[in-house]
Automatic annotation (TrEMBL):
ASPIC/UnbV domain segment(s): 521-587
Domain of life: Bacteria
Keyword annotations of the record: Signal
Record's signal peptide: 1-22
The protein, known as: ASPIC/UnbV domain-containing protein
InterPro entries assigned: Crtac1 (IPR027039), FG-GAP (IPR013517), Integrin_alpha_N (IPR028994), UnbV_ASPIC (IPR011519)
Keyword Signal among UniProt keywords: yes
Keyword presence, Lipoprotein: no
Length: 1099
């Protein structure tokens, strides 16, 4: 029994807590004063000649928190890791009062402690403490510590005896059963200190053979009270500056995997457990990109789909000033060199990897709203408000703001060879001490239940800035909600009391009683089934940053009623518990679980689609040239030279079978795939005009001779604006599939275009054309020319001005569709484009009238990439679906806060400078980093001599009024991909597509009845791998099937059910009919393989 607490102290604490809660009744958390909790631990760090960042790079990386019940009294006790101060252990006395038992317990230390794991290492039923140690100096000072619980509130240090006295400058440990032999092994992440900031981001060949001293360690439990280092034989060989470790069965194969987040250039690592005692790094195949400076991480199912998702922290600030002060401009060339040397694409921001269930992840941090939290350390995903969804808590701050770019420049000056070593050291130490602290507020994010989070830091009780590192959650007062413990530098640790119990919240807590060797049931998987929300949890204790959680498992219930609980133990035995009441603690015992046959365990579903490229002999990989648009216009938001390949369908040889054409990039031929009578295809190169870049193409009967001719739009940005390579091409078919170009058939069109689409708009019986202009090469964002071409017996005339002269320079068109939206018997022209609204040109017979404004589409300006029409709600008129940038981007836009470009030749060097600006926290700022804008406009170097001067200036103050005169100003107000419902009265109603359609740009839309229920569905493909290196690629899309309900409703179908998986830079999608009437889906991708999908409902 814990020692008694004085009555006065208890009353005082109750009064304080009550008063705090009454005064801040709208706050979910209350930070308790150390004078009442008696927790006075403070991780104090002060610089001197011995302890400073020049001698020890990890001086400011802080310490962790461990939570566990060391005396089995049902209350969670707390251990803090100290760097220059001793570790401390506090006994929970109840009512948020703690007793410091550090000295009497035997855990007093004089090492540089970092991470802590509180877990029963020797499996005697009592929690032990394993402490990771780092720091410089002698090797014996860096030995990790293992404190074995003596069952009387004292511990004995026995790391050497157990074989766990590792001296590798450790960050944190994770105990788990990697080989499923029934006992707990240990993974140790390390972060050596023998490096400098000038060297850690140098691109060089990666060390993958275990030779680096920054390679992590795996210790196998020998089952006799000792551990052995089996790193090398187990495949733990990859270098990295490790800051975070998480363990989870990522791929749901029954074997625990390991995620390691690494600082600086070194890759994050996902060690997949091969099930034979070895691991393989699959990060490059599972993830499209990761965080750059990976800090702490957490693995949890945040969206309640039964899959483990991963959040990793970085250091992108939320406010403009700190963004511009500490985040340097990224070099495109350096980024490409990084990829060539085997590094994963990495971007400076927090990442949220959404598990797709098929060994792939979509990174959706920007969509979710959690990507920018500054210099962050620990993230813990747990249900803090007990509503049934896991929220996120993030710690923040750094003792000295060494990322300040002005300081880095100054530091380089201090590194000059003049003066004695002592003088240089004194100057550096003085400079460090003069550098301000980057104390920053911690963050709370509430899970909205729709794949997004809301920043609730203020509402949930975050008031002050801090230098916070490790953190842990636990129900310290056993009232059913999760409290938080935070390890701070140079201030007392934070105890955050959760006030959810005052909001009549509902919960369930679970304790596990495993079998001998794993008494805490580490690795167990629990699913809480309820009437409207299934929750999934994997039981591992090391989470966040340098910290370990309490062994008791917590579920918030919201309004859900528990139906049952399923637990899968590590040995795959299963237990199902029903009739569970809420607001209690239950114990699940391994002895009550049952074996399940392998057949039962492997039951699954057959996906709708499967890939059949090999069977149909359509194997083809698009090749792209190496042109880099940023070398012409440095300030481009993205390149325009990699927007292909596009496809066209049609019978080219008169056998009534549908063939297709796929365009080539500049320097590569486009080619036909000709369908044979058995439904397979034969490849045939066009082999003409290879130097041109194919964009949109169309197979249609241009000359009325009964066969399909080929129109190819020339596009891209590889050439000068007036280059002959931008001339469009019309190839006439001789009826047998042989084509000849006729230059005289077209007016001289030299423009970088995007799309061609046909309709008999003059009603003379042949097909006329609209050709969309995409860009003015080297002059972005000036509008290129678009054309209406009237067909007169195979000869085409530019009649744009006859029908609507504004069509000639309508904007940067990306897509076009002809459809009779108003049901007057005449096809109207609908356009999508970059920095354009969805535009409607109504066909009156003699004119195309721009009715965009009266159609309700005036405020839809975006970065549109695609558009398609279909009667989605079954009311007889044509609705629209349009693909936009999406909202998984740093760029944000709304009507009130648009994203704009002010384009002009500011420095009068005959080059357009497209300066982009957008709103950050309600103010309009230049989007580009300082070095980008000074690199494009030399005069800006004198105006903004420091990063600080640039960081503080708003867009309106960055230029003289006369400098912005006559600038071309274009705006985007909406980046959501959208379903436009035709209301039948000439207007459209906008409805954003579902969340999973917003996580990347949509380049291809196919409206079709996928499942044969006579209701139109939608297939989507997208991404854009041509982004600026500072912003990164938009790569979250893996293909998406939206099932239609016939009333305009669209529901995403998981890829595990649909089988429609396209994780590439997809540019086009078509539905093609095979010889037997079945259809297949074609998807073309830039620099990747053509994919062909058969549909099992039609196959």
């Amino acid at each position: 029994m814990k020692n008694k607490v004085g009555l006065f102290g208890s009353l005082l604490l109750m009064l304080f807590i009550g008063s705090s809660c009454n005064n801040t009744s709208d706050h979910l958390f209350t930070e308790l004063d150390a004078s009442l909790t008696k927790i006075d631990f403070s991780n104090d760090i002060e610089e001197d000649e011995e302890h400073n960042i020049y001698n020890f790079m990890n001086i400011y990386t802080g310490g962790g928190v461990g939570v566990g019940d060391i005396n089995n009294d049902g209350l969670s006790d707390i251990f803090f890791a100290g760097n220059l101060v001793s570790n401390k252990l506090y006994l929970n006395k109840g009512d948020f009062i703690f007793e410091d038992i550090t000295e009497t317990s035997g855990v007093l230390s004089n090492n540089w402690s970092t991470g802590v794991s509180m877990i029963d290492v020797n499996q005697d039923g009592w929690v032990d403490i394993y402490v990771a140690v780092s720091g410089g100096g002698k090797e014996e000072k860096r030995a990790n510590k293992l404190y074995i619980n003596q069952k009387n509130n004292t511990f004995t240090e026995e790391a050497l005896k157990y074989g766990l006295a590792d001296t590798s400058q450790s960050t944190q440990s994770a105990f788990f059963d990697y080989d499923l032999d029934g006992d707990l092994d240990m993974f140790l992440i390390v972060n050596p200190v023998d490096y400098s900031l000038s060297s850690v981001n140098t691109i060089r060949p990666r060390k993958l053979n275990g030779e680096s001293n920054s390679t992590d360690k795996l210790y196998r439990n020998n089952g006799d009270g000792t551990f052995s280092d089996v790193s090398s034989e187990s495949g733990i060989l990859i270098e990295g500056y490790s800051l975070g470790v998480g363990v989870s069965d990522i791929d749901n194969d029954g074997w625990p995997d390991i995620y390691v987040s690494n600082d600086f250039l070194t890759n994050d690592i996902l060690y997949r457990n091969n099930g034979d005692g070895t691991f393989s790094d699959v990060s490059n195949t599972y993830f499209k990109h990761t965080s750059f400076a990976g800090m702490g991480n957490d693995i949890a199912d945040f969206n309640n789909d039964g899959l483990a998702d991963i959040m990793v922290l970085d250091m992108l600030p939320e406010d403009n000033e700190r963004q511009k002060m500490i985040i340097p401009a990224s070099s495109f060339d350096k980024f490409q060199m990084m990829l060539k040397n085997g590094y994963t694409a990495q971007y400076t921001r927090n990442t949220l990897q959404l598990n797709n269930g098929n060994n792939s992840f979509s990174e959706i941090g920007q969509f979710a709203g959690i990507s920018q939290t500054d210099w962050s350390w620990s993230v813990l995903m747990a249900d803090y408000d007990n509503d049934g969804f896991k929220d996120a808590f993030i710690t923040n701050g750094f003792r000295r703001d060494i990322g300040d770019l002005d300081y880095i420049n100054y530091q380089q000056q201090l590194s000059n060879p003049f003066g004695s070593e002592k003088v240089r050291k004194e100057k550096k130490l003085k400079a460090i001490k003069e550098l301000p602290s980057a104390a920053i507020k911690n963050y709370f994010f509430k899970n909205n239940g729709d794949h997004t989070f809301s920043n609730t830091s203020k509402d949930w009780g975050i008031k002050n800035v801090s230098l916070s590192n490790g953190s842990a959650f636990a129900d310290l007062d056993n009232d059913g909600d999760l409290d938080l413990i935070v390890n701070n530098i140079n201030e007392k640790a934070s105890i955050l009391k959760n006030n959810s119990e005052k909001q009549t919240s509902r919960f369930l807590k679970i304790k596990l009683k495993g079998k001998a060797g794993n008494l805490e049931g580490i690795g167990s998987k629990i699913t809480l089934h309820s009437n409207d929300n299934n929750q999934y949890y994997q039981h591992y204790l090391s989470r966040g940053y340098e910290s370990s959680m309490d062994q008791t498992i917590h579920f918030g219930l919201g309004e859900s009623k528990i139906d049952s609980i399923t637990i899968v133990w590590p040995d795959k035995r299963i237990q199902v518990v029903k009739n569970v009441l809420e607001n209690q603690v239950i114990t699940l015992e391994h002895g009550n679980a049952q074996k399940v046959s392998q057949k039962e365990n492997m039951e699954g579903i057959t996906p709708l689609f499967s890939e059949v490229s090999d069977a149909l002999k359509t194997k083809y990989k698009h090749q792209e040239n190496n042109f880099v648009d940023f070398k012409v216009q440095l300030l481009l938001p993205h390149m325009h030279s990699k927007n292909g390949p596009k496809m066209a369908l049609g019978d080219i040889n008169g056998d009534s079978l549908e063939d297709f054409y796929i365009g080539g990039s500049a320097g590569y031929s486009g080619r036909f795939f000709v369908q044979k009578s058995d439904g397979t295809f034969e490849e045939q190169e066009l082999n003409m005009d290879i130097t041109a870049e194919d964009m949109g193409s169309l197979l249609f009967d241009a000359d009325g001779d009964g066969d399909n001719d080929l129109y190819v739009v020339s596009g891209g940005s590889e050439f000068n604006a007036d280059a002959p390579e931008y001339e469009d091409r019309l190839y006439f078919n001789n009826g047998s599939g042989d084509f000849v170009k006729d230059k005289s058939a077209l007016p001289k069109i030299i423009a970088s275009g995007s799309v061609v689409t046909a309709s008999d708009f003059d009603k003379d019986g042949d097909l006329d054309l609209f050709v969309g202009g995409r860009i003015a090469p080297g002059q972005y964002p000036i509008s290129p020319k678009s054309y209406l071409l009237e067909n007169n017996g195979g000869k085409f005339t530019d009649v744009t001005n006859n029908f609507n002269q504004n069509l000639a320079n309508v904007g940067m068109v990306t897509a076009a569709v002809w459809t009779d939206y108003d049901q007057d018997g005449k096809n109207d022209l609908i356009l999508a484009g970059e920095f354009m609204p969805i535009k409607i040109f109504k066909n009156s017979g003699s004119q195309f009238e721009d009715v965009t404004d009266t159609s309700g589409l005036a405020d839809t300006s975006g970065w549109w990439n695609s558009i398609a029409s279909g009667d989605m709600d079954g009311d007889g008129d044509m609705d629209l679906i349009a693909g936009n940038l999406g909202t998984n981007s740093r760029y944000k836009a709304s009507i009130d806060q648009p994203l704009c470009i002010y384009a002009k030749d500011y420095d009068k060097n005959n080059s357009i400078d497209p300066i982009m600006c957008y709103y950050i926290q309600g103010e309009n700022y230049i989007a580009h980093p300082r070095d980008k804008i000074t690199g494009q406009i030399a005069s800006m170097r004198g105006r903004f001599k420091t990063y600080e001067s640039y960081a503080k200036v708003k867009f309106g103050d960055a230029f003289l009024p006369e400098e912005l005169e006559n600038a071309l100003v274009i705006k985007a107000t909406n980046f959501k991909s959208t379903y436009f419902e035709n209301m039948g009265d000439g207007t459209f109603k906008s409805k954003p597509l579902p969340a999973m359609a917003q996580i990347a740009p949509l380049n291809g839309i196919q409206i079709t009845d996928v499942d044969g229920d006579n209701k139109l569905d939608v297939l989507l493909v997208g991404n854009n791998y041509s982004g600026d290196a500072s912003i990164g690629n938009h790569d979250g899309m893996i293909g998406l099937y939206l099932k239609g309900d016939g009333k305009g409703g669209l529901v995403p179908v998981p890829v595990t059910s649909s089988g429609f998986y396209v994780n590439t830079d997809a540019k086009d999608i078509k539905e093609l009919t095979l010889t037997d009437g079945r259809s297949v889906i074609l998807v073309s991708s830039n620099s990747d393989s053509l994919r062909v999908f058969s549909n099992h409902t039609r196959w």
